[in-house]
Amino acid sequence: MFLIYFAIIIIVPLWAQMKVKSTYKKYSQVPSSSGMTGAQVARKILDDNGLYNVAVEETPGFLSDHYDPRSKVVRLSSGNFHGDSIAGAAVAAHEVGHAMQDQEEYAFLRFRHALVPVASFGSNISWILIIVGMLAGLADLLLFGIIFMAAAVLFQVVTLPVEFNASSRAMEQIVSAGVIRNDEERETRKVLNAAAMTYVAAAAVAVLELLRLVLLYTGMTREE
């Protein structure tokens, strides 16, 4: 059972990463009917929604695309910035979806931003407390580690509605903006869904690990 558990927490994230890479690779070679580059897609959607203050910039790396809420910049990897593929359009629209969330002060996005310092601290210190607590047989120390870890897990769980909402906005925007035709919606949705699976896998594994530690703590307290 123990081996099955670890196989799951290793295999599921790897499968999700392979899925998004293979899907992206496939549709990055399929040009969109509009012929617009990712940069043009992002700029059009931003302008259509009055986000003239948000810039679009190229950033190095593979699938390094992201929205920076502090600088108000949508950053697209070189392939998506210059390319005119369905995958590039989907990714660009998704990142603009985050910019739209930021403008509207989307509740889950604000909550996730508020969790950043707590989650960062929790992920850094939790395993130290957990390992020391288990090795020393100190249930209270293990409990503190679990509490700190729970903050990091909560961050990953809250990320799910943020990402799904950004993808939903992306589909709506690229269709209404005429970036893709109706017959291209299926392919675009595949790209967005594959990317979302990486967040689902990460959250699922984090929750499973947290539950395992809670059971470990429960067993330790019963032995005392």
Automatic annotation (TrEMBL):
It comes from the Bacteria. This is Zinc metallopeptidase. The chain crosses the membrane at residues 127-155, 191-215. The keyword Repressor does not apply. InterPro entries: Zn_peptidase_2. Keywords: Membrane, Transmembrane, Transmembrane helix.
